[in-house]
Design goal:
The complex is a heterodimer of chains A (252) and B (338). By secondary structure, chain A is of the alpha/beta class. Chain A has 7 helices and 15 strands. Chain A has helices spanning 14-27, 42-51, 68-75, 92-101, 112-123, 185-192, 244-251; strands spanning 5-10, 33-39, 56-60, 83-88, 105-107, 143-148, 151-156, 160-166, 169-174, 178-181, 196-200, 203-206, 210-217, 223-229, 235-237. In chain A, β4 (83-88), α4 and β5 (105-107) form a beta-alpha-beta unit. With 338 residues, chain B is α+β, with helices and mostly antiparallel strands. The chains are: A alpha/beta (252), B alpha+beta (338).
């Protein structure tokens, strides 16, 4: 069996990938390794790593669309997540956060010695899940992700109709289906802010999915509001405490 | 150590052909006219009676003064400041006397002003305007302007430097000659970035620099970066502040190209329209994906302030979001080295 370290290189700039492969090639004389794949953006990286197994991912932070931090978060849903070494040209904020969270990173241009040390260190961390990545996130994610049979299922944020908290999980509802997410509703509301409307203690509705509101009469004579959605027949109740969102939504 | 700059050198002679200087002079003199009128007759109808005949004198006097001072600019150039002041006073006295009698002949009914009063007013105005321009000249003196320009020194994003170095390293083995060229381009770019950028440079110089800069970006970004130059009518000899375009291009790449994986085009149009040079720069607008507005604003403010230092109100810069993308337009007066 091939016992060499399987490495994946992710960077949106071709010269940066080429340079990394070049020094990895130099290092392969000292460290048993092989570059098994490369990807030019975050989404491709996640899709790729669903298909092939890797030991270490060298992951650029600043990439179009899905950035490196988000990729790393999604990868934690794999049955055996690869060790991650971030690469960055210059990002004072990220570097500070990495130091605080003991996350490994390399500064570009990358030195061979530094890369070798990072690989040695990562070897000792294979199969260890990375925690606290959400603290490194600088901007809201483009996708939510859930683990399903050891693979990552990406749900584009634009597909989400609403999120509902249920006991231990949060249910993500899209036009097609439901997913179970292991995150708290409060954190999601904090991260995505204006994109969602809290209509209930346990429910966030995507603003873009709100078609309107309807007043439903109750037997007691009192009525309550429900949210009408685009792309779904479902009607979600608005709690008494959150009734102000109906007015605010109509107002602006 | 002996301190230098003990004696501040006299300020440069004011440029009366500059629109900003002209506007300021007109405002000051008319303001003084209003004050003179109010001093003599504080009540409203009385004030008008005082001010209107004075205004009949002030406006042509201003016009004649500014036109002749602008016309005589060459003659004054290089003269000591003291002689310049004496010459201006003589000129103004002559204009005052000349106009006083012309108005007397052309508009006999308006001859309510006395010659001594007119002459005192003319000379006091001249003195105040010269004093103002002298103080303003000192405030914008090379030493102070240099300090301000230094603070405004366009700064390149460190991220660009390190990514470029990585790109050069990636070429070292495969294409050493291209690696050499990129390093030379980088050297040129940093030479300008670190230079004393107080003097205006020919547009051609800035254009070459921008081309070198974009070549480096092209190496990093490949097909994602498309550039369309429209420079058939570009006046190569026009004088521009150094680094007027490059930071805008850097912004365009950072906000318009890098945030998405698909190719995008940066469109640059430079042309001369009579006595103005116009720069139009357009890049795809990425909305929230290109979020780092702080940096963009800083670069724009920096350029706006430098334009003001160099051209006062004669330069203009505006940025707008159009359906075709994000567009920055700069208009500066067309000047050349002679």
């Amino acid at each position: 069996m091939d016992t060499r370290l399987k490495i994946v290189v992710v960077d949106d700039e071709l010269p940066a990938r080429n340079r990394l492969k070049e020094i990895l090639h130099d290092l392969s004389e000292h460290v048993a390794l092989s570059v098994v794949a490369e990807a030019s953006d975050g989404l491709k990286a996640v899709t790729l790593l669903n298909e092939i197994s890797a030991d270490i991912v060298l992951l650029d932070i600043r990439m179009p669309g899905m950035d490196g931090i988000e990729v790393a978060r999604h990868l934690q849903n794999l049955a055996a997540p690869p060790a991650i070494v971030f690469t960055t040209a210059f990002d004072a904020y990220a570097v500070k956060a990495f130091e605080l969270n003991a996350v490994d990173y390399l500064l570009k241009p990358i030195r061979r010695e530094r890369l070798q040390a990072a690989l040695e260190k990562a070897k000792g961390r294979l199969g260890v899940r990375l925690n606290g990545l959400e603290q490194l996130q600088q901007r809201a994610r483009s996708h939510l992700s859930v683990a399903e049979r050891g693979k990552i299922l990406l749900v584009p944020l634009t597909d989400v109709l609403y999120l509902r908290a249920e006991l231990k999980y949060v249910t993500i509802k899209t036009a097609e289906r439901e997913y179970l997410l292991e995150e708290s509703l409060t954190n999601i509301e904090e991260e995505f802010g204006e994109q969602f409307l809290r209509v209930h203690r346990a429910c966030l509705v995507a603003r873009s999915a709100v078609r309107g509101f309807e007043r439903v009469a109750e037997e007691s004579g009192d009525g309550h509001w429900v949210v009408l959605l685009t792309g779904s027949e479902e009607k979600l109740p608005v709690s008494r405490r959150q009734q102000h969102v109906v007015r605010e939504f109509k107002g602006g | 150590m002996a301190s230098i700059n003990q004696n501040t050198p006299p300020p440069a002679l004011p440029d009366f052909c500059n629109l900003g200087v002209m506007l300021r002079v007109m405002l000051i003199v008319n303001g003084l006219g209003v004050l003179a009128g109010m001093a003599r007759e504080p009540s409203w109808p009385g004030f008008l009676q005082e001010f209107l005949p004075l205004s009949v004198f002030i406006q042509p006097a201003l016009l004649a003064s500014l036109l002749s001072l602008c016309g005589l600019r060459r003659l004054f150039a290089g003269q000591p400041y003291r002689e310049f002041v004496v010459a201006v006073f003589i000129l103004e006295a002559a204009i005052g006397v000349g106009l006083f009698f012309s108005i007397g002949v052309l508009l006999p009914g308006e001859a309510s002003l006395a010659l001594p009063a007119v002459m005192v007013f003319t000379l006091v105005c001249t003195g105040i305007v010269l004093l103002y321009l002298n103080l303003r000249g000192r405030a914008l003196s090379p030493a102070i302007t240099e300090a301000r320009l230094q603070a405004l020194q366009a700064r390149i994003r460190p991220h660009f430097l390190f990514n470029s170095l990585t790109a050069v390293l990636s070429l070292m083995r495969a294409d050493p000659r291209r690696a050499e060229r990129v390093l030379e381009d980088l050297a040129d770019l940093f030479r300008v970035l670190m230079a004393d950028n107080r003097q205006l440079v020919p547009l051609q110089t800035e254009f070459v620099l921008c081309r070198q800069y974009l070549e480096i970006e092209q190496l990093r970004l490949g097909d994602r970066l498309r550039i369309a130059w429209h420079i058939d009518n570009m006046p190569e000899d026009a004088l521009v502040p150094p680094l007027i375009l490059q930071p805008l291009l850097e912004n365009a790449v950072y906000h318009g190209i890098e945030p998405v994986a698909e190719p995008g085009e940066i469109n640059i149009n430079i042309y001369r329209n009579r006595d103005q040079v116009i720069f139009v720069l357009r890049n795809p607008f990425r909305g929230e994906a290109g979020a780092h507005h702080q940096g963009n604003k800083m670069a724009l403010n920096n350029i706006r302030e430098r334009l003001a230092l160099h051209f006062d109100v004669e330069a203009e810069m505006k940025s707008q979001i159009l359906s075709s993308g994000y567009q920055v337009t700069i208009t500066i007066p067309y000047t050349t080295k002679r």
